[in-house]
Amino acid sequence: MSDIHYHSEYANKEYHSNLKIYLDSFLLYIQSLQRNYEYILLSGDVAQSGEKEDYELFYTDVLTHLHNLFPDAKLLVVPGNHDVSRNGVSFIEEFINSVDKRDVFLKNKKTSFFQVFSPYSNHFIKNSNISTNSSVTYKEHLLFGYVLDKLNKTIIVLLNSAWYSVGDIFLEHYINNNLYSSKEAKVIVREIKKITSEYGFQTLGLDVINEVQEIVDLLNTYPEYLTITTMHHPINWFVKDDQITTDKNRFHHIKKFTDLLLTGHEHVYLEHPVEYINNGNILHIKAGCFSEFSKEDRKVNGINLLNPFQIQNNWFSTLNINTKKRTVKQEKHYYDIGKNEWKVIPDAAHLRLNKKHNVVISENRLVNIKKYVVNNPLNIIEHLFKNDNIRIINQSVFRSNNNIIFLLTQNNVSIPCQDVKDFYRNEKFDKLFVVFIDLFNDICANYIASNNRLLVVNEIKNDYDFKFNVFRHDFFSTLSESEVAIYGDLIFLNKIIPYWEIEHLNC
User: Fold this and answer.
1) What is the pLDDT of residues 20-34, one digit of tens each?
2) Cα separation of 58 and 371, whole Å?
């Protein structure tokens, strides 16, 4: 959802009768979808005036109901130009008279800029549905940062493109000080454009964000993860320095890894197509406008309608993202004004994302996964045998229903045949599972040297399969005639687990 423009004036539901019909219809419609969403994304302009009363009413009227309908969905939110609190702008004069570039001024006045967004930040940081996997700075201000979702193998980068969205206040200040000056009209016009224009003058302020290098390092550490970047303004609204593609451009490093870009601001029509940007490497989906606030009175059939809530081309999207197949199913949901009900466009768009098979994995990442396996063997076994009752026999041997499981954290199969016989006499099992984790095989070093992990894991599987077959052969070939009657019906099975199937357990 984007561009919600919620205003404290909406508290008067009798006056805004069309709003009540609209919201009631929306909540009933959302409930009828009967789906489990993992994230609720608000991509800017949640409020109309950026004041706390706007957010409090939005929470009461909308967000609390969404949390009740989807209690497991984590909230993602970035600010838009309407989330700026104009009442908090105390440095207008300094900015107008400053010779610094916008990013330099932003860096020097970081605390002041944070204050501009304080009603927005103070409201949402209290929300318990913010992901615990969010970065520290994002939890503090909800202005920028990231979410590392190991379960879905996804990184969500959240950026603030609205630092300089205080145009009206700048304009009022400038006019008050220059209306009766001796400046020529064309000079005044030029200066007004420079001060208040948003298009081509927005900045991401990445020099301000302490986490930028942390974000880049994270993207380098998990290069095969799906990367979603979200911000309010599309890229064409940025200053030139944020748009150009150079190694010095910090946004360029984020774009290199971004697969899906989600933006708002432009209130695009329902029919607006998606686009592939950055040489076709990024799928860019622009959001529609969920609701619009207007102070202008409207006339319909000669009758004045004194209602600032606007219903016109209102819609939102739901996205079903398959990280394995790297596809996005986009459903567009729109409000039918004539029937006062929500509908979905019948044919959902099935969109592709670029594949990331050829990636190099860092040694530090693999070491951390190995440490987790060694220190948490039970978690690994419970994940692999989900519906079984797991009992620990020792650090590397487990009982699962009628099975015995050996978890091997080494390169070779070093299970003495006598140990298997002893376990059978004590436990009476039907199947023996040998679980191998790929990172304990010597070949795993190729994950760091090679950029094709699928080839590497196939080499590891072939090696472990051979060693397992030797172990099984040695066991049965050394049985005596009397032992064959006891152990001959045992079934030996192996599981070879690649690191990416268990890494999310270490969250």
Assistant:
1) 889 999 999 999 987
2) 45
